[in-house]
Amino acid sequence: MMVKDRANFNYFHFLILVHLLSIGGRNNYLEITSGQMSRIINRSQQTASKVLIDLERENLIERVKNNKKFGIRLTEEGYQTLQEIYIMLKKSIDNSKNNKIFFKGKIVTGMGEGAYYMSLEGYKKQFHDKLGYEPYPGTLNVRLEDKHYMISRKDLINQPSIHIEGFKNSDRTFGWVKCYAATIIQDVNINHDSNPVSKNIKEMDVHVLLLERTHHDNSLIEVIGPQSIKEVSNLKNGDTVIIKIKN
User: Fold this and answer.
1) 3-state SS of 114-141?
2) Are strands 204-211 and 167-168 parallel, antiparallel or unpaired?
């Protein structure tokens, strides 16, 4: 019987099966009380007893009474059920590694800060050494309109990045910058037209920046590239673009 056919199979059933497997319960009868199982699932002893009864009824475990104690082990069906779950989890985890983080937003006019920061030698040399190019002066600013993109923007700091060190000059201290390799392309389906007007659409390799010190909130993404992103990709203010973070 497949996992999907078990309408009553739940998280507590899963925890107990996994625990039994981990301590040798596939091939051996183990003397485990419902009290011990209650601690495994962090529920009452009564709940643990019911879970054990459910598992036995579904032929996922078998219990043999020896005097006042029960010996418990997985049945072959119980072991196969865990194997099915493992295969599904592994496939999902492997597939998730290929799922890129992406954002969608509109290009907006910046405040000119990007051009200033890109011109600072303390950053320029590190960009050249670590990214392999000296960025075009200025950043492309993309305003995120949907909340889930803003949340992803906030969580981006937890992803692997290229770290640009902060530095000091005679005037002030400048913070670190985290760079994320990405691609940017115009969203040609913005008008949901089944026959969009032919345009010179070009995907461009870029880097998304997260700054230690910035006036922007999580609704805005700053992007740099070796050339003018607008010119190379035929973009303008107001265009909707898709930014995909590379793994």
Assistant:
1) HHHHHCCHHHHHHHHHHHCCCCCCCCEE
2) unpaired
**Residue 155 dihedral angles phi and psi, to the nearest 5°:** -80, -10
Fold held by 102-245? Elongation Factor Tu (Ef-tu); domain 3 (2.40.30)
Phi-psi region of 106 (alpha: psi -120 to 50; beta: other; left: phi over 0): beta
For residue 167, give the 3-state DSSP assignment: strand
| Exposure letters 90-123 (e unless 16+ CB within 10 A, then b) | eeeeeeeeeeebebbbbbeebeebbeebbeeeeb
Q: In this model, does residue 71 exceed pLDDT 60?
A: yes
Q: DSSP characters for 37-104?
A: HHHHHTS-HHHHHHHHHHHHHTTSEEEEEETTEEEEEE-HHHHHHHHHHHHHHHHHHHHHTT---EEE
- 192-217 tens-digit pLDDT: 444 444 455 678 999 999 988 777 88
Residue type, 227: Q
* Phi, psi angle pair for 51, to nearest 5°: -60, -45
How many whole angstroms separate alpha carbon 77 and alpha carbon 147? 44
Model-level pTM?
Answer: 0.65
The phi and psi torsions of 87 (rounded to 5 degrees) equal -65, -45
What average pLDDT score do residues 143-158 get? 92
Q: Is the Cβ–Cβ distance between 175 and 145 less than 8 Å?
A: no
CATH topology of domain 3-94: Arc Repressor Mutant, subunit A (1.10.10)
Q: pLDDT tens for residues 35-49?
A: 899 999 999 999 999
